[in-house]
Amino acid sequence: MIKLENINKTYFGAQPLHVLKGINLEVAEGELVSIMGASGSGKSTLLNILGILDNYDEGDYYLAGKLVKNLSENQAAEFRNKLIGFIFQSFNLIPFKTALENVALPLFYQGVNRKKRIMMAMEYLERFGLKDWAEHYPNELSGGQKQRVSIARALVTSPKIILADEPTGALDSKTSAEVMQILREVNASGITMVIVTHERGIANLTKKIVHLKDGVIESIEENDPDKMDFTKEIK
Amino acid sequence: MFDVDNINEIWQTIARNKTRSLLTAFGVFWGIFILVILLACGNGFDNGLRSQIEGFATNSTFIISSPTTEAYKGYQKGRDWNVDMSDIEAIKKKIKGVDMLSPIFSKWTYNGENNVFYGTKGGNFSLKGVLPNYIEIDRCKVMYGRFINETDIAEARKVCVLGKKAYEDIIGTDKNPLGLMIKANGIYYQVVGVVEAYNGNVSVSGSMDETIILPLTTMQIAYNTGDKFDFFVFTTARGYDTKDLQTEIKNLLRERHDIAPTDEGAFVCFGFEEIFTMFEYLFLGIKILIWIVGIGTLLSGVVGVSNIMLVTIKERTREIGVRRALGAKPSIIIRQVMAESLLLTILAGIVGLVIGVAIMVVVSGVVANTPSDDVMFLDPQIGFGAAIAATIIIVLSGLLAGVLPATRAIQIKAIDAIREE
Ligand SMILES: Nc1ncnc2c1ncn2[C@@H]1O[C@H](COP(=O)(O)OP(=O)(O)OP(=O)(O)O)[C@@H](O)[C@H]1O
Ligand SMILES: [Mg+2]
């Protein structure tokens, strides 16, 4: 599903910063992978490249068999819309839209008609126990609810892959556990998932842990989440 | 661009900040409003002036004989001379391009004493001796009876046509004036008609309303002037140049009356066409000025919309970034920003247009119901064409206002939204 070959990325700020120094990584379809590493190690940078939100300088990135390189804005938008679902640490819900409208928004960009959009969005909200919150605005929701809305939004287009940057970063441990449970269920339904986290407890719930250090992959750890008692280990 | 979904999207963003949207929209509203009011007022003055000249043949020229100002062929300068009927015949025969030619014998009233009477009721009116065709130059409605006709001229009949005011003052509207005898400057004439001038104030030797009109020949006999008269008026035929005609006629008259070929002072020549053309240019100038001022005001409204939308776009960086991350193509973002600015401008503009037009309809009504002799301001409304033009301008301003914010908006990349501040 994902294949990275020698990805390099340098930020040209006040002084050039070589953030990713030759990343090679393969993620198979249906895998649940976490990326761990110290702050500043380049986790978010890598995930943004995976999400075609940012570009890279060197190497090749294949997503679902297609080379993602020098895409036009329109092509990138289409890739993101059809293949990728994003979950952010700070949720990034649109504040003046209701939960329902937020979830329906990606479908709007797919040109799905209004009635069908609302129906599908409602379906996903229901799936995450948010039916009663459909007409509420983000500022009326708790952190966990917001993150569930954003998960619904990421899933509504039936993407091939979910990218999550610190999805539990703004949540307490109990809510984090709930969100992780949901994400694992989503993964179990066959959707490939890459989660960036710096919490070991979260990483322990994934099957593959990629350790990033100073822009290179230090090690890839195989893990069996079912052996973990996540409710205790999570934090 | 404006399907229900998009309208919803746009409306949400506009309604989110009502006060700001309102303030923004006010600039455009005001611009259009001012434009409409100015245009309508311009039209009001234009119509006012036009009503003044209504009914008067605008291509007419008066030529009045005046004492010579140069000595010529043994004659002293300062010699009095008069146009006569043979001149009229000569002009008709020799000069092409004269449409109508009408000599006028005029007796002004100087002292303000009553000079026209019916029975004991009197009034102060000027007398004018004319030919039947005069009514085609100084156009007026025949209220009763008829105008002067050829028989009146041929037989020098002692008949008269009264101006409306003269009729009302000395006979009274309760009486049929036809056949009555009135006395003007000591001579009795039988009333054969009453005429009413159009709105117009442009006339020679007073409005037709305040004139007693006599057959030219009758008047020449009454005042013992032979076939002389004071002045004549001619209209230019289609396709001829009034200035050329004036020169030709003056040259002919100079020849016939032994006036120096260079003597310009021997005539008072008064062409309405020039004056009207001048007014046309004046009004064209005013109109251009109005459009410049109006569009200027509107433009500042457009700058306002553009500016506030730029600020809004900056504030919406995160939202737009998220939209981009969720798969919004640049074209969608452009469309949304443009549609936002269009909707805001069009709503504000249409409201401005409607309120402006409504106010001017009311003003127009008030003006129409205010009785006044000198109508300088009439029917101040904008025409259909101007309304259409204003609407097109509104749409264009909306697009114009959206260009900069839209360009700014598509520069926002998804990554900008994701990055924490
Ligand atoms: N747009 C940018 N311009 C310049 N430098 C950047 C930019 N984005 C990130 N960096 C730098 O690149 C490095 C990697 O950043 P990145 O956000 O990928 O780290 P991270 O692993 O996600 O850290 P954290 O765990 O704190 O989120 C950091 O040193 C950061 O300062
Ligand atoms: Mg990060």
Question: How is this structure best described in words?
Answer:
Chain A is α/β, with parallel strands linked by helices and 235 residues long. Chain A is 34% helix and 27% strand. In chain A, the strands form 2 sheets. In chain A, strands 6-7-8-3-9-10 form a 6-stranded mixed beta sheet, with helices on both faces. In chain A, strands 2-1-4-5 form a 4-stranded antiparallel beta sheet, with helices on one face. The longest helix of chain A has 16 residues, at 173-188. The model of chain A has no long low-confidence stretch (mean pLDDT 91). Chain B has 421 residues and is of the alpha+beta class. Chain B has 12 helices and 14 strands. The model of chain B has no long low-confidence stretch (mean pLDDT 85). Chain A binds chain B through residues 44, 48, 51, 53-54, 73-74, 77-78, 80-82, 86, 88-90, 92, 94-97, 105-106, 108-110, 114, 153, 157, 165, and chain B through 4-5, 9, 12-13, 16, 318-319, 322-332, 413-415, 417-418, 420. The complex binds adenosine-5'-triphosphate (ATP) and magnesium ion (MG). Magnesium ion binds at residues 43-44 of chain A. The site of magnesium ion has 2 residues of chain A, from helix 1.
Secondary-structure element order of chain A, N to C: EEEHEEHEHHHEHEHEEH
Distinct ligands, ions and cofactors found in the model: adenosine-5'-triphosphate, magnesium ion
Give the N-terminus to C-terminus distance of chain A in angstroms: 31 Å
Morphology of chain B? elongated
Pairing-aware structural class of the strands and helices of chain A? alpha/beta
Number of strands of chain B: 14
Q: What is the residue-mean pLDDT of chain A, rounded to a whole number?
A: 91
Percentage of β-strand residues of chain B: 15-25%
Main β-sheet of chain B, in a few words? 12 strands, mixed
Low-pLDDT runs of 5+ residues of chain A are: none
Strand order of the largest sheet of chain A: 6-7-8-3-9-10
The percentage of residues in β strands of chain A lies in: 25-35%
What radius of gyration of chain A results from the CA coordinates? Answer: 18 Å
- Give me the strand/helix succession of chain B: HHEEHEEEEEHEHEEEHEEHEHHHHH
Indicate the overall shape of chain A. Answer: globular
Helical stretch tally of chain A: 8
